[in-house]
Design brief:
The protein is α/β, with parallel strands linked by helices. The protein has a single domain, classed as Acetylglutamate kinase-like (Carbamate kinase, 3-Layer(aba) Sandwich), CATH 3.40.1160. The chain is globular. The structure holds guanosine-5'-triphosphate. The site of guanosine-5'-triphosphate has 9 residues, from strand 4.
Length: about 250
Amino acid sequence: MNPNFPFRRVLLKLSGEAFTVEGKLGIEFERVRHVAEQIRVCHKMGVEIAVVVGAGNLFRGQAAAESGMDRATADYMGMLATILNSLALQDACEKIGMITRVQSAIEMKSIAEIYIRRKAMRHLEKNRIVIFAGGTGNPYFTTDTTAALRAVEVGCQVILKATKVDGVYDSDPKKNPDAKRFARVSYMESIQRRLKIMDSTALALCMDNNTPILVFDIFEKDSLKSMFEGQKIGTLISSEEGLEYAG
Ligand code: GTP
């Protein structure tokens, strides 16, 4: 095991944006293939990988609720959209030789197996990529919370949160050219500084269960691979007190 990446089982959280190009809605299959290829390279290094996919590329529950739709209905639509993304990722992974299982939180027997914790753990032990679809199955929760919940449930030692930014900054790097990236920050510090790494439910779950979160840029070439090789990329959020700036 690589001492700089001492994790045997990880949960990769992909935002829906990882499956599309900037400003576009829908599924860009080239992007999905790219993500699958990154997963394959890392999986070959012997780490068990579970995945949670968001749905922002297809449907934004929050925006629909803000424009007047019933929040629970909007959230259910978002959950269904995660199933589309999960099947797209499953297909892309299997096309390049990985064995996968999609487990849905919403019963949909003819499409995917239902989420069963012990079965998911068995799949991981057998080196299958497990893709958790359908969110938590409940409205009012985000896919970040799904990621935190599933990671804790199936014993993932870290959440790899893939975004389009290369870590967490002390201010918005798009607005402030002097914004500085953190290499490491504690849960408490991130709450106090309102860094908005994840929603508060997700963050609280990670904090209570001591599950670290590594935020990194999935669009950066070979970022996932570099991380698995032990290079210090992104920002690590953990129980370790204080913070450290990058560079
Ligand atoms: P093992 O028990 O370790 O052999 O796992 P397995 O997933 O290979 O066994 P199982 O017989 O449960 O599954 C065989 C295939 O059927 C896999 O591709 C599963 O994803 C799929 N599968 C299992 N249960 C369901 C289900 O309820 N619905 C759908 N659509 N597929 C399922």
